[in-house]
Structures are given as structure tokens and as C-alpha cells.
């Protein structure tokens, strides 16, 4: 197991190191309850509800191939016996094999790309077949969601040492770099027009930033690409500059000029996993070290200003070992995401418009009491991973 990242955290801040160890233990404890042995996959979510007897319980809802693949990507860093505890007796590679077998029936590019990425990282012998399915779904000239385009690039980058993917890799690289709007360092929600309504085409989410910057950093690490590294570094620098005073990674950005459209909700997975994953990969590829921003974001998991009472004490914890979860997010509780819609429409015409009264009317103090497998999968990936080879 690679402990470079945890070791560095211990050197910088012992309390945060203890928090990361606590979260990793929670991930291993919580994932088995998210696995469905009869279906040999993972649930979509575990949601907190009140039982007929009036007690809080967790309810399993749906299934997710995407989350299953992300779990395999993170769990591969665990010792083999601990991998088997998560996948019904299988290793991460063996479980990835099940996902590869199901690829012919999948029609979602992002799902297929994640499975191919997992196949590359676990050394699965069916990697070439997985990449062929990605190619079949990734129709040239068709606009794609930026997150899924980034996963395609990450999958091809991970595979390039064992499969000839250079032509496809070059196309995926160009597509992601060309998606940016003008001189903005941020990435839009889709690679080209056509997928997002015009009135909100300028709005991009946090995932639209972290997955591309991660993919481009990993691309540079796999084979010298200064342009890719520079794009990743610029994106990272901007989201770190915009990070909240409490370490919050904000949710929606204006991809045209690099500002925040709407900060809330704040997602736990962004704080403890997705931001660390991307920023660690960037630093280890030779980019800027944003370790201080990673630590600020991680600290939010226990020091949540949105949930503090008038005396400064927390009204509720985002970390629940008793349930085996971290609660998903803190949000405004506004009806039908009204604040996001209002700011999205307004900033389309007036960039940087804040509509300040909305912050006073809809204060962020509600907790979304659910937890999804990918939150734990990326947590394992973020803190147990290490320098790219």
C-alpha cells in the first residue's frame, strides 16, 4: 500500500492525519453494506429515513455501475484480503472483470470509460475489449459531457503502457483542451454546444474541473505534455483561489470567466476525496503543490461552519460511524434549487451577479442524509494512491 500522501499529511498536520485515517476506516467499514451480493454490484445510495417504529435507518436505493467502477479504482490500493471484504470475496481486479463482461449491454460513455480505466489500473486481461466498447460509444464529432470526456482521457492514459491507444489518446486530449471557453482556466459542462440548454451553458460544476485537471495531469505524468500540465495547473489555481473561507469547494462556476455562480451545496466527497485526488495527481505530475488547499478542504468535514450553532458548536456531524456513512452534503433547502436557477439565469447576462438577498433568505443549514459508494471509492483512491509511474 502506498502511504506517501498520508505520510505527508502526518508531517503537516497530525489532527488531519487522524481524520483521514478515520475516514479511510469508515470507507472500508461502510462499503460492504453497499454491496448487493445477489446482483454483484453496488447500490446507488444509502439514504437516511425514519422507520415505521420511529427510529432512523438507512434505506438502500437503486444500483450503479458507475459507482461500482469507481469503488474498484479506489479499492485496488488495499491489501488483497481487504479488497475481498468489499466485493463479496473478489479482488478489485476480479470484480472489474464482472464489469467488463457487462460492457456490451452498457450505453453510457462515462460508465464504460470508468470500467476501462479500472481494467487498466488493475491489469485486467480484457482491457483491449473494454477500450473497444469505449470507442464504440464515443462517436467522433459528437459533443460529450466534460466529466465523461475526462474519464475517457484518464482511461486511455492508464492503458497506453500496454495497449496502442495513441491515436485515440491524442483525439481525447485535443477535445478536452479545446472545450475551454476563450482564455478561461475553467472547463464547461460539455465539450461542445448541444447537450446543455443555452441559458445555462455557461454554468459548470466542480466535477467539471477536477476530473479534467486530473486527467490532464495524469496524461503529462505518463508522457511529457507541458500544455496539458499547464491547463491542469491553471484550472487548479483558479478553484483554489475561489475556495471558501471554511475550506469549502464550491459547486457551480461560470466557465466563461472563472467565477462562482452558486456555492451551495457543499458536498462531502469534494472535501475529502475529489479535490484531494485531483490536486495530489497534479502535484505528483510536476504541477503546483496545493497541499494547503487540500488540508483546508479536509478540515471542513469536522469544522462545518454551516452547521455551527450560535456558540460555535456543531449541530450535527457529517461523519457517522454508527451508520457507516458520511452525509452527502450541506445545502440551502431552497425549493426546486431556486437559488441555483436564479443565479444561473442572471449570470448568463450579468457575470459576477450575486443576488445577495438570496443568501439571507436561503441560508445553507440543511443536511442531505445519504451516502453513495463512489464517495468512499474516491476516498480510497485519494489517500492510498501515489505518484504516477
Q: Mind explaining what this structure looks like?
A:
The protein is built from 16 helices and twelve strands. The protein has helices at 4-12, 14-30, 65-75, 80-84, 92-101, 109-122, 127-137, 146-159, 166-178, 207-222, 226-241, 268-284, 291-299, 338-349, 357-361, 373-384, and strands spanning 35-36, 41-50, 56-63, 203-205, 252-254, 259-262, 266-267, 319-320, 325-326, 329-331, 366-368, 370-371. Helix 8 runs antiparallel to helix 9 (166-178). The longest helix is centred in the first third of the chain and has 17 residues, at 14-30.
Residue-averaged pLDDT: 92
Strand proportion: 5-15%
How does the helix and strand content classify structurally?
Answer: alpha+beta
Main sheet specs: 4 strands, antiparallel
| Count of distinct strands | 12
* Helical percentage: 40-55%
Which labels suit this protein?
389 residues; alpha+beta; four-stranded antiparallel beta sheet; three-stranded antiparallel beta sheet
Set down the secondary structure blueprint:
Layout: H1 4-12, H2 14-30, E1 35-36, E2 41-50, E3 56-63, H3 65-75, H4 80-84, H5 92-101, H6 109-122, H7 127-137, H8 146-159, H9 166-178, E4 203-205, H10 207-222, H11 226-241, E5 252-254, E6 259-262, E7 266-267, H12 268-284, H13 291-299, E8 319-320, E9 325-326, E10 329-331, H14 338-349, H15 357-361, E11 366-368, E12 370-371, H16 373-384
Antiparallel strand pairs: 1-2, 2-3, 2-12, 4-5, 5-6, 7-10, 8-9, 10-11
Helix pairs in contact: 1-2, 2-16, 3-5, 3-6, 3-16, 5-6, 6-7, 6-8, 8-9, 8-10, 10-11, 10-12, 12-13, 12-16
Produce a short descriptive summary.
The protein is of the alpha+beta class and 389 residues long. The protein contains 16 helices and twelve strands. It has helices at 4-12, 14-30, 65-75, 80-84, 92-101, 109-122, 127-137, 146-159, 166-178, 207-222, 226-241, 268-284, 291-299, 338-349, 357-361, 373-384, and strands at 35-36, 41-50, 56-63, 203-205, 252-254, 259-262, 266-267, 319-320, 325-326, 329-331, 366-368, 370-371.
Amino acid at each position: 500500500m502506498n502511504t506517501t500522501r498520508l505520510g505527508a499529511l502526518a508531517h503537516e498536520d497530525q489532527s488531519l492525519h487522524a481524520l483521514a485515517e478515520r475516514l479511510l476506516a469508515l470507507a472500508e467499514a461502510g462499503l460492504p453494506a453497499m454491496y448487493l451480493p445477489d446482483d454483484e454490484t453496488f447500490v446507488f445510495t444509502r439514504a437516511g429515513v425514519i422507520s415505521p417504529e420511529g427510529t432512523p435507518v438507512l434505506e438502500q436505493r437503486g444500483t450503479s455501475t458507475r459507482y461500482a467502477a469507481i469503488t474498484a479504482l479506489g479499492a485496488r490500493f488495499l491489501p488483497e484480503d481487504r479488497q475481498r471484504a468489499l466485493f463479496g470475496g473478489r479482488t478489485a481486479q476480479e470484480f472489474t472483470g464482472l464489469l467488463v463482461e457487462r460492457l456490451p449491454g452498457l450505453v453510457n460513455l462515462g460508465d464504460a470509460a470508468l470500467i476501462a480505466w479500472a481494467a487498466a489500473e488493475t491489469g485486467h486481461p480484457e482491457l483491449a475489449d473494454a477500450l473497444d466498447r469505449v470507442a464504440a460509444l464515443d462517436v467522433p464529432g459528437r459533443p460529450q459531457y466534460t466529466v465523461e470526456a475526462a474519464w475517457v482521457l484518464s482511461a486511455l492514459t492508464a492503458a497506453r503502457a500496454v495497449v496502442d491507444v495513441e491515436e485515440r489518446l491524442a483525439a481525447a486530449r485535443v477535445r478536452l483542451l479545446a472545450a475551454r471557453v476563450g482564455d478561461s482556466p475553467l472547463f464547461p459542462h460539455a465539450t461542445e454546444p448541444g447537450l446543455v440548454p443555452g441559458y445555462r451553458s455557461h454554468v459548470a460544476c466542480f466535477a467539471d474541473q477536477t476530473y479534467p485537471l486530473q486527467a490532464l495531469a495524469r496524461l503529462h505524468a505518463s508522457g511529457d505534455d507541458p500544455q496539458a500540465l499547464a491547463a491542469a495547473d491553471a484550472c487548479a489555481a483558479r478553484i483554489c483561489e475561489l475556495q471558501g473561507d471554511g475550506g469549502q469547494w464550491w459547486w457551480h462556476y461560470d466557465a466563461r470567466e472563472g467565477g462562482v455562480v452558486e456555492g451551495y451545496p457543499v458536498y462531502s466527497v469534494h472535501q475529502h476525496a475529489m479535490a484531494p485526488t485531483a490536486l495530489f495527481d497534479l502535484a505528483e505530475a510536476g504541477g503546483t503543490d496545493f497541499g494547503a488547499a487540500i488540508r483546508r478542504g479536509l478540515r471542513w468535514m469536522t469544522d462545518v461552519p454551516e452547521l455551527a450553532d450560535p456558540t460555535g458548536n456543531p449541530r450535527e456531524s457529517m461523519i457517522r460511524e454508527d451508520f457507516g456513512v458520511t452525509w452527502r452534503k450541506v445545502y440551502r433547502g431552497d425549493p426546486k434549487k431556486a437559488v441555483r436557477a436564479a443565479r444561473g439565469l442572471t449570470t448568463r447576462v450579468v457575470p459576477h451577479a450575486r443576488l445577495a438577498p438570496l443568501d439571507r433568505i436561503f441560508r445553507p443549514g440543511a443536511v442531505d442524509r445519504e451516502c453513495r459508494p463512489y464517495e468512499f471509492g474516491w476516498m480510497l483512491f485519494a489517500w492510498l494512491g501515489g505518484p504516477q509511474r
